[in-house]
Specification:
2 domains; 19 helices; alpha/beta; elongated; transferase; nine-stranded mixed β-sheet; about 525 residues
Length: about 525
């Protein structure tokens, strides 16, 4: 059984597995009771391994990586929530029950089948022994001569290899947990006095914005790029007319296809956070996040706008946010757009109305997570007149007339088309908000959190995402002139590519922060 969809072909199932030959030999040598116990346990283990192979297929398809048996079980709950938001509660419940029953039935039936085969071997011991010897000879011969069918070796030891890979991955995860906990304690700016943090941004309103699934493929994939690049060009010109200018580059994300919080935390912590254990470790640490820097200075009010958050969010403390507006605190009365609780345009208008547009004694530092470009990219909102947004009811007709998730979820071409439209919508919402409400002191930093799933971005896609810094004050962009980023909102293909974890320190250094490592 292969563990990627690309290898799910008939030729993979005409191979001769060494594990079957060895298993037959072992079962033939055992008395009745030990034989039945061994067969049942081996069959159940083989069924469980098949379940792991299916999980590997899903994780490779959606997240561009293999399933981690130590860390990833809790992500299945997130997957169930995603299905519920995208396809409806009843469908999600039925699919969840079906998946659980399928796993149980698969493990049980393979165990029963293995017991049945063990009994057959015992009843025909002489012939079975000859057959096992012949199969072993064929396996060794095929291995020695490299015999293949359609490019696939006949002799296989795939099952043992998969077990070995999972075992090594589990051990590496446990070792990484201890090492990363030590690494997280080290912080280049951990002991920097507040007065020496970002002095060159004093008095500025800083907005850090993540655009969901905004990856390099949106700009460079020939099936997606035309619409997105046109949006970026149009937005660059519109912003320039309003007095804003931008520089753009690339960051390599710590995640792919999903798990957006890993991209957010990697960018803002300056640590490479590519799994859930690392995320938990950082969230419980005193490691200084980029957003918390502004709170530490005492010179900024700090706020988060999180339309995708629908439950308690203890990460607020780590990110140093005085106030967080979740999906239920932005006054939205319109429909959900699949997983996204509200259109980006509305979330930004609510941010303006409830936070940014109000008079304050201090400048504002904001972290905003935009969600309209979240898969399954159907239905997608459309821009409406900003003065007509109201409580969001205006989107009811747009949502009703939109494409249904089921219409595109298994269609790669349509998924690409709708994905591109969703990114264009998110970028347009953000840049129009800046044109409309930005001031001489507004500094916008926006980037993607990760590439879209491989069905859209491609199986060999990079993990790069675009990042842009936009400001009216020329001094702000002058500070990053030596970064060699591209002018405008569209980074050139040869623009610098940095690891996402390097951004925090580069940003703090560029704007005058003094390194003072924590002890």
């Amino acid at each position: 059984m292969p563990n990627t969809l690309g290898n799910l072909r008939l030729r993979e199932f005409v191979r001769l597995p060494a594990e079957a030959v060895i298993g037959a030999a072992v079962l033939l040598s055992l008395p009745r009771r030990p034989r039945l116990i061994t067969a049942a346990i081996s069959g159940a283990a083989l069924g469980a391994l098949t379940v792991l192979n299916v999980l590997d297929m899903g994780f490779n398809e959606y997240l561009g990586r293999h399933f981690n048996i130590v860390l990833d079980w809790e992500l299945l709950d997130d997957a169930q929530s995603y299905m519920q938001d995208s396809m409806g509660g009843s469908t999600a419940v039925l699919l969840t029950i079906g998946a659980i029953l399928l796993a149980v039935v698969l493990i049980t039936l393979v165990a029963l089948a293995t017991v049945h085969i063990a009994n057959l071997l015992a009843r025909h011991k002489a012939n079975a022994s000859k057959g096992a010897l012949m199969a072993g000879t064929v396996w060794i011969t095929c291995t020695a001569f490299g015999v293949q069918i359609a490019g696939v070796p006949i002799a296989a030891d795939h099952t043992a290899g998969v077990v070995k890979v999972h075992a090594h991955r589990a051990l590496d995860t446990l070792r990484d947990e201890a090492q990363f906990a030590k690494d997280a304690k080290a912080d280049t700016f951990g002991s920097t006095p507040p007065a020496q943090l970002v002095p060159d941004l004093r008095g500025k309103d800083i907005v850090f914005t993540f655009i969901e699934s905004y990856g390099r493929s949106a700009i460079e994939d020939p099936e997606i790029a035309p619409g997105v690049t046109n949006t970026l060009d149009t937005s660059t010109k519109a912003l320039a007319k309003a007095g804003f200018h931008a520089k753009s580059g690339w960051l390599t994300s710590a995640t792919f296809g999903g798990n957006s919080w890993l991209g957010h935390s990697t960018t803002l912590s300056g640590l490479w956070i590519d799994n859930q254990q690392r995320y938990r470790t950082v969230m419980a640490s005193d490691h200084l996040s980029l957003t918390k820097v502004f709170k530490k200075t005492g010179e900024w009010d700090t706020v988060g706008v999180m339309p995708g958050v629908q439950k308690s969010w203890p990460e607020q403390k780590y990110y140093g946010l005085d106030k967080v507006y979740n999906a239920f605190q932005l006054g939205y009365k319109g429909p959900k757009f699949s997983w996204s609780t509200m259109p980006d345009q509305y979330a930004l208008e609510a941010f303006q109305r409830q936070v940014h547009g109000k008079e304050r004694d201090k400048p504002l530092m904001s972290e905003i997570i935009l969600t309209s470009s979240h898969q399954p990219w159907a239905p997608i909102p459309k821009m409406v007149d900003w003065d007509d947004l109201g409580d969001g009811s205006v989107f009811k007709a747009i949502q009703k007339a939109g494409v249904k998730p089921g219409d595109i979820i298994s269609d790669s071409t349509r998924s690409k088309q709708e994905y591109g439209k969703s990114v264009s919508y998110s970028v347009t919402s953000l840049t129009q908000w800046l044109e409309r409400y930005g001031t001489d002191d507004t500094v916008l930093v926006f980037l993607g959190d990760h590439q879209p799933m491989s069905r859209v971005s491609g199986v060999r896609a990079s993990r790069d995402v675009p990042i842009s810094i936009v400001a009216k004050d020329p001094k702000v962009l002058d500070k990053i002139a030596d970064w060699n980023w591209t002018d405008g909102l569209q980074p050139a293909s040869k623009a610098p590519v940095w690891k996402m974890s390097s951004f925090r320190d580069r940003f703090l250094t560029a704007y005058g922060s003094t390194p003072n490592p924590s002890k």
